Amino acid sequence: MKYLHIFFNDYMNIGASAEDSAELKLKKSSLLLVPLIIGTAAFIWGLIYIALDQYLSASIPLSYSVISIFNLWHLHKTKDILVLQKTQMVLVLFLPFLLMWTLGGFALGSFVMIWAFFAPIAALTYEKNLKAPFWFYAFIGLVVFSSIIDQGLAESHTNPMPQTGIEFFFFLNISAGLSGIYYLVKYYINEKEKDTDALLQKEHMALLQRTNELKEANLQLRYLADHDALTGLPNRSHLRDRLSMMMSHAKRSKHTVALLFIDLDGFKNINDRFGHVQGDEVLKKISNRIKSLLRLEDTLARLGGDEFAVALGNITDITYVECIAQRIIDEINREYEFLSEEASIIGASIGISFLPEHTEEIDDLINYADEAMYHVKHSCKNNFFIYEKTVNTG
Q1: I need a labelling partner for 360 at 20 to 30 A (CA). Which of 65, 126, 313, 374 fits?
Q2: Rounded to an integer, what is the distance from CA 343 to the centroid of its chain?
Q3: How confident is the model over 319-378, as pLDDT tens digits?
Q4: What is the rounded CA–CA span in Å between residue 110 and residue 56?
């Protein structure tokens, strides 16, 4: 059984090519069943006819076997299924009728007609819908023609087979022929279902991949909507969300939230002298320096241009905020190794507002920090200032 299975797999791959589509592979493999089923039966039938002294009748199935071997060799060499398909369908349609005529017509050989029905069955499977009826009509036409010449065939036949031989062949042809048709159709349907399942699985996997790609793209879009493209920091919109969360927590815990509004001093000179590429490098360097000073629960955001903001939550000591503000200024004041020493002088003006000391509204908290920052900008620069209502920032 093992060797039979290996032989069957090797045989079904005779015409296989790596470039074949799934549909063409199925067509080739299922069509190979026709010479396998009929060719094997025809060879055995031919030997039996020879044993019964029916030499003319024996030549017909044996010739089919020889031509089928040539067909298979040609398919193996060229991988072209068309020659095999056309040759097999013509032979399978005409040779059974020819064999019936040599046996003496309907009365003595009608049992071989079952093999001719392989042609219209195969046509339904392999031909286009418009061509398939031709083979059925051709089969019916040969039946009608055989009926017309039947009497003359019976009268001219001089070497009939013994009655036991006729009955024996009747049993073999009907059982083998119908079994062959059954397995041909069954194989095609089963393979078609496998291909369909494989295609559905492939489409399912492609759909899952596409879904994952869309999810990743959606996450990326959401990330870009909430973050600065250059530094990867939260943007103004995300800062507001973080402030809202901090403020809710602060109200429950009776702690303070601090907002530091940062504007760089001297950054315009960097862009003007070295270009925006170097300017972008400076902004990324500054964002990394500031982040290194903050806690995990704090938020650093880039508001645009050379403006940043830091939100500090869970504050119990105002001096901590002042210390962070000064350390931010010191870090920004440090030299930048990719700039010349005299060009790397960058400062920071920082305005600070508190919740709930100054306000309990996010918009006011942002505006007050902005006003305090402008107070530094218009006075001394490179310093920090805590918002006071009495200060004129104009």
Answers
A1: 374
A2: 53
A3: 999 999 999 999 999 888 877 766 567 899 999 999 999 998 999 999 999 999 999 999
A4: 17
Query: What 3-state DSSP class applies to 78?
Result: helix
Confidence of residue 5 (pLDDT cuts 50, 70, 90): low
Cis (ω within 30 of 0) for the bond into 133? no
Helix, strand or coil, per DSSP, at residue 293: coil
Rounded distance between C-alpha atoms, residue 382 and residue 70, angstroms? 94
Task: For 152-216, give the secondary structure using H, E and C.
Answer: HHHHHCCCCCCHHHHHHHHHHHHHHHHHHHHHHHHHHHHHHHHHHHHHHHHHHHHHHHHHHHHHH
Query: How many C-beta neighbours within 10 Å does residue 392 have?
Result: 7
With respect to CATH, is domain 236-386 assigned 2.60.120.10?
Answer: no
pLDDT in tens, 115-142: 777 777 777 776 665 677 888 888 889 8
For residue 106 the two structure tokens come to: 């309907």
- Nearest Cα neighbor of 49 from 68, 63, 34, 70 is 63
Give catalytic residues, as residue numbers.
306
